[in-house]
Amino acid sequence: MSGRASEGTDYDCEVLVVGGGPAGCSAGLFTARAGLDTVIFDRGRSSLRQCAHLENYLGFPAGIDIESFYEQIHDHARTAGCEITPDLVERVERGDGGGFVVTPQERAPVTARRVVAATRYDAGYLRGLDDEEALFETKRYGEEEYERFDREYADEDGRTPVEGLYVASPSAAADTQAIMAAGRGARVAHRVIADAERADGYWECVAGRPDWVRRDAELDAEWRDRRRWIEWFDDRYGAEAPVDPDSERYEQVRASVVERARASYIGREEITARAETGLGALVSALGEQRVLEAIDDERIREYLGVTGENAAGES
């Protein structure tokens, strides 16, 4: 974090996520990749850590132990640019100049422009941000009454009546499965990104971005010309623009969207390089010897610089 003073619109981070499980890390992954300075606070009661073995998360055919899963999602969030802080958030309050002041258990308070709640079991740190009747509801279990966070408080995209506050978990959406929670976090993050871009002058239909890359080979000669992309923007977004097409704001937004779209196409060498980097990270996480013992994959052996004969001798 930058440690900047909380004055005016100057914040320690753009997005602060409370909770470092699947929902929180997924949300942070997307906001950080979109260029928003993101901090994740992760310490407290976790529903996923009560699981003995995660068996239904896509991509792990034999399941994965919880600690390894946590290591991977935290590494992914850090690689995207998130800072993960092992501290418990005790309170979230409105800042004097806007945004929020987040008070953790052990560290000094942190200021954030936007906050994403991603703690399925506990949302008590949100008390005081809105009317208690709006934030919490009374439920009955047998003869006993208890209070819990109102899962209908946020809308389907995670927005709440409190500007800048989003809820990924707990929510009305299904979040009792890790993969569903991760999807929920991604959806809420897309809303955060869109709102941040709207604040920077984008209009609604332009704000937000698909986070993907495509093959450069898909582009024909027509679409390699920047002027064709400008025509595309004008045709698709011009009619709904709230400003004059000749205005500086329109030109700035158009230039940003066009450059972002063009940059999403990458060539064969870059595709190969990214594939090798991804494979290398996977090998590193699993351990080279374990991979060699369990898998006879020429690509992995080539990456490690080990021939089939040498690998057999080493294993």
Automatic annotation (TrEMBL):
Keywords: Flavoprotein, Oxidoreductase. GO terms for molecular function: FAD binding; oxidoreductase activity. It holds the Pfam family FAD_binding_3. InterPro entries: FAD-bd (IPR002938), FAD/NAD-bd_sf (IPR036188), Ferredoxin-NADP_redctase_2 (IPR050097). Residues 12-47 form the FAD-binding domain. It comes from the Archaea. This is FAD-dependent oxidoreductase. It comes from Halovenus carboxidivorans.
